[in-house]
Design goal:
- By secondary structure, this protein is of the alpha/beta class.
- It folds into two domains: 74 residues, no CATH class; 196 residues, Vaccinia Virus protein VP39 (Rossmann fold, 3-Layer(aba) Sandwich).
- It is 36% helix and 22% strand.
- An eight-stranded mixed beta sheet has the order 1-6-5-4-11-12-14-13, sandwiched between helices.
- A hairpin with a 3-residue loop joins strand 13 and strand 14.
- It is globular and about 55 Å long.
Length: 290
């Protein structure tokens, strides 16, 4: 792992992965919640187990295997962590399976709005030691969790690709932007539009995607996942209209927001030579055909 442009504190050795392993009682609740999450018939049991596990965990952490990788989950307050730990049926199973099936060995994956790194880890495992993974996360508290999870899976021990962590927001122009912290779900921090204000907002560094790829020497991208809470159009328009076509990803996994947000974004994709490939629960997968 290489960490770029962030002053996020690291976990101390005494809190290394394994220090928060669940006791047998909590482990049973987690396993029951996970096993029943895919069953409509067992929804009530799954819901009860999730609620019981969340009460036990409280504001604490749980170290748990995620698709063969070491992840520290803090599920209360971050929807992605809660679903990935306790309700895998609702955590992007189709998208993750798509990455595993379509990201080639040695492939390049961009995770824009990486949250705690679950997509990045799956991509790193799939692409292997020759792969390139760039994970962008602008919110420092989330970056701290992301960095811990990546550090807990060192490439020389796991065979995963190296994940480069970039503590910047992908934007239309290089330079400072205003970032608003989330109010309930830690993964919903966002870059504010020009002139917009919100209590508690702070300044982060913004970077054009094409400039960042050039810095890393990346001339081709296989898959990009982007989830930046409504800022996708501003981030991707200069990249898809001005950057070399060779940098454009073969596939894009994009969160589908409101129609007001989605329609201009879909129009941009079509203009750039993309067509819809697959619809998922909350995301759309687009493929470059032109």
């Amino acid at each position: 792992m290489t960490l770029h442009e962030t002053k996020t504190p690291r976990e101390t050795p005494r809190t290394a992965y394994g220090a928060c392993h669940p006791d047998p009682s909590l482990m049973r609740k987690i396993e029951w919640a996970r096993r029943t999450s895919h069953s409509r018939r067992l929804y009530l049991i799954s819901s009860l187990m999730r609620k019981s596990a969340l009460r036990v965990i409280g504001s604490g952490s749980v170290d748990y295997d995620f698709r063969g990788m070491k992840v520290r989950f803090r599920p209360n307050g971050n929807t992605a962590e809660k679903r990935a730990l306790l309700n895998p049926a609702r955590f992007d199973a189709t998208e993750l399976a798509f990455i595993e099936a379509n990201l080639p060995v040695g492939g390049v994956f961009l995770d824009i709005g990486a949250n705690v790194g679950l997509y990045s880890l799956v991509a790193a495992k799939t692409s292997g030691p020759q792969g390139r993974i760039l994970a962008f996360e602008a919110n420092p508290p989330v970056m701290a969790r992301l960095a811990f999870n990546v550090t807990s899976n060192p490439p020389d021990e796991t065979g995963l690709a190296t994940i480069d962590l970039i503590g910047k927001a992908v934007t239309g122009e290089n330079g400072p932007v205003t970032f608003a912290p989330p109010t309930g779900n830690l993964g919903e921090g966002r870059v504010l539009d020009e002139g917009e204000t919100q209590d508690g907002s702070f300044t982060v560094e913004g970077v054009r995607l094409e400039d960042c790829l050039a810095t890393f020497g990346i001339i081709h991208t296989d898959i990009m996942k982007i989830d930046i809470e409504g800022h996708e159009l501003q981030a991707l328009e200069p990249f898809l209209t001005k950057a070399p076509a060779s940098q454009h990803p073969t596939f894009m996994i994009v969160e589908r927001g409101s129609e007001e947000h989605w329609q201009p974004l879909a129009a941009l994709f079509r203009t750039a030579g993309y067509e819809p490939h697959k619809s998922c629960h909350m995301n759309e997968i687009w493929q470059k055909t032109g």
